[in-house]
Phosphoglycerol transferase MdoB-like AlkP superfamily enzyme (Tenacibaculum caenipelagi), 806 residues
Amino acid sequence: MKANLLKKSFFTYSKIIIALLVTFWLLSLTEVFLRLKASSIDEILQLVVYKLLNDFWIVLLIGVLFFPVYYLFNLLHSKYGSLVFVAFGVFLVLIELSLVKYSTITLLNLGADLLGYSYDDIYKTVASSASFSIVNYLLFLLVPLSFLTILYFFKRKMSDILPIKILLILSILIVPLKFFGTEFNEVKYQNKLGFLATDILQFKLRKLQASNYHITEENEYPLLKFTKDTKDVLGSFFNTKSQKPNIMVIILEGVGSEFVDGNSYSGFTPYLDSLITRSLYWENFVSNTGRTFGVLPSLIASLPYGETGFLEISKIPTHLSLFNLLKENGYTTSYYTGAPSSFDKIDKFLEYNDVDFIVDENKFGPSYVKTGSVDGFSWGYPDAEMFKKVLSTLKEKKQPRFDVIATLSNHEPFMFPNKAIYERKVDSILNTSQNFGVSKEEIESKKDIYATLLYSDNSLKTFMKDYEEEHDIENTIFIITGDHRLIPIEQKDKLCRFHVPLLIYSPMLKRAQRFKSVSSHWDVAPSIYSFLNNNYLLKPLKQTAWMGSGLDTVKKFRNIHQIGLMRYKGGLKDFIYDEYLYSDGSLYKINSSFETHKINDKKMLETVKDSFNSFKRMNNYVTEQDKIYPFTEMHKKQKRIKFSVEEQELIRETAEGKTFDEVFLIARAKAFEGDRETARLLCDFILNSMPNHVDARILKGRTLSWDGKYNEAEPLLLEAIERHPFYDDSYLALLDMYRWSGQESKSVITAKKAFRNKIKNPSVAFKLAMGYQKLAQKEQAFRVIDSLLEIYPENEEYIKFKKVLK
């Protein structure tokens, strides 16, 4: 009986597996068609064959792994196994469809980077990359329906033995390829679901392998080096002055080297190209990460990665950065972005480094126009608006200044003002006799991206021109680089994702110079600090702790650095050693044009692998054990709340598995129930990781006000306004606190500030009227309440208040 059940179960199961395989094949063929471009027939055929065989491999693994589960359900009832596994098949098809859609938009497979993002960050990234149309919704209905239709057909028309034969033949074909064919395992051929699962598994294994760093007394802080050991390689290029120079770092979203300086996709950044000819320019320069999450720690602080990026480390390790070092030496520090600074937990890094001015999406106000939205989503303020905001703040800041500016327009969904005008400019450029590194048809197919490049480049040009007219450009050094190479355009090799330009421009330069030697973002902070320390006598600092050793200013092609590259959060898979790139287990030679080709050199492969493994062990050790830099007086400024063991346990019980917004809703409910201590504890937990979570800050301030702790509430609510000057609830909470504590004069000042910031909530005006009443300033109170009644003549609360005034 059981033998018959096993046999019948196996036949039915094999048909479900074949139906799943065919559905995966259809998705792969669709992906190939959507990404089809000018390639040879041989390349297309190889892509199709290898992708289909990789689909079979992952479906075969699924089939083998889950057959025992299927059979156990069948033992309970003859139909249970089929029902459960068909439902599981629908689930797998939906996941594969989602991963294929992600890949066609980003040209990347989703892997372990999924572990490094919060729910909110994932939503923002997906919302910016895809338009939620009726077609998209239909796909998520039609593809599972196709799987069910195929399965129904196979069950009706296919013999029991045929799927077994198909699976056996394909298994005999694929197993040798999987284990002995190196090309077969290339990322571009892999099944999306298989890549996701194996990448997460490999990430977990890498974490275990990298945990055995050997510690001695000599290497407890392996990154420590004497400050004097980092040579000043920039000083000879500058005419230095007596006063310290302003340093302005401009991080250009998505600008890779392929888009500038006459390279493959260039012709759409004319201003940046012209600036290169007047700058120190590194042709063969790399970002340390393939996404934006790593640019600030690498560029500004030359820091290691940790598991999934430095900003994802829950307790930020003690470290140095240009922010805190230059602030210690009299610099005013600022960070500007048109996006939310909470994305990628950038705000945590800025808070740790005690940055003086943080200007993000919350600080722009009604006179600035946000970038266009897709399905209601917008990243924030486009480059021209952001640069305008920067210029509006500079005059009021004490010099010398250290300013970091991060642009965002050159990012999906590539929305910005006057887009149609810039798209016409792309058409005009394509109609000239200019030669391009790719076909005009390929540029035309990505017109929105090239239009964005033109817009961003023009925004930079306008900013630099206005800066020259209004500010001390003669004593300013500009450092301009890309955060990573644009993702939604096909990559020629494994290195180009990291290949970005680096320009150092200033009227203080003696001459322009190009360098072919290799350096990375890690080398910028050591060289800038060494230059300032050597030429402007900064406060003595015996030791530094940089990942980089400084910019290489040799003109010829060479590499003296060992550079770990993290493709995405958790994707530490690439390593530059000498003139070699190690990537996904293979070795590539880097030529003087910064192109790669695979080589077979087993001895060198082992040398590079050993160095990479040592690097990974050190990376894990210094970040997990807080052994980057010893704690000093300078680091006491970090604003982080410490919790007792009991508080940690309560937070764990309440917040585990929940997003910060979900925890906030719990905190708010606790506050309304009267459990204000727990509400404040949860708010502190949120603010430790998200210092810009304005609602948590306001809720904590309100609960303190309710308890009569006005001296504690006031600074919290004032900080909420400082961080979010255009958010009405910040003002309302502070106005209530002033009213309850009898500080009506402060209430009037706060309401007027709200009006200056164009806060239009009528409750602010009403609270102002009540403040005037308490101050016995009836005329002003009448004026405010009358203006409200003109707009809201039926409002009973306003009518009643006016009667009381009389």
